[in-house]
Amino acid sequence: MPTCLITATNRGIGFELARAALSDGWKVYGSVRSESAARQSAEQLGINKDYVPVVFDVTDHSALHAAARKLDDRLELLINNAGIITPERQTPLDMDFAGFLRTLEVNTLAPLAVSQAFLPHLRRSDAARILTISSQMSWMGYRKADTLAYRASKAAVNKVMQGLATDLEREGIPVALIDPGWVRTSMGGPAADNCPSEVAAGILNVARSLELADTGKFFKWTGEERPF
Ligand code: NDP
């Protein structure tokens, strides 16, 4: 049975990714931030013995390394999904700098920290891969100034993952980025274009077919490669 770790499986895209992976025959370790979220996600995912919630905040490096040390399994796939779109004030001329730093911690630094912590588990598999959820809002072609902290954090995670891809290429572990489109979650809001279950199925398809030739690339959830 293939095994994956998905961050933030208690709601939104992460929850649907866990559901899609379970129904596709994966064993799923899902990171959540509290015991109550662990219980709730397990209940909603049908108390499936193939779903194992793991409690850590992705920005708490000691907690995530402790969780990694406790996990005695190999991983075929890591999906870095946890993310935030705060702070409220995030335009170039009105920036909440503390909020900007927090966004960088969650969206940019944490995917690298989680990848490092669980690399030993990925190395145990001969078909391991890492997929990080970025955003079309990272695209350098947009000159938009709104939600700047979020845009910058996703542009930065693209660069971080490109670097990780280069370093892990010699180990045969592909690392790629994915744009989920605009999705109806609490982040995307009710007017968004796409339903989370459809997007999750698309992301899982991309994850399943990732090869070393894809390393360092940025894909749309529908599978096409997209520009950075
Ligand atoms: P949601 O706001 O619905 O869910 C965010 C998830 O991230 C929650 O499970 C939340 O946990 C978790 N999370 C937030 N901070 C942390 C943290 N410090 N440690 C661990 N988990 C954390 O967002 P979506 O599902 O829409 O987004 C998922 C990913 O997709 C994000 O990376 C987002 O940037 C990206 N994305 C989403 C788009 C959209 O339209 N929805 C568009 C483009 C990209 P908790 O419940 O504990 O807060």
Automatic annotation (TrEMBL):
Family: Belongs to the short-chain dehydrogenases/reductases (SDR) family.
Any one GO molecular function term: oxidoreductase activity, acting on the CH-OH group of donors, NAD or NADP as acceptor
PANTHER family per UniProt: SHORT CHAIN DEHYDROGENASE, SHORT-CHAIN DEHYDROGENASE/REDUCTASE SDR
Name under which the protein is recorded: C signal
Xref: InterPro entries: NAD(P)-bd_dom_sf, SDR_enzymes, SDR_fam
Pfam families xref list: adh_short (PF00106)
Species this protein is from: Roseibium album
SUPFAM superfamilies cross-referenced by the UniProt entry: NAD(P)-binding Rossmann-fold domains (SSF51735)
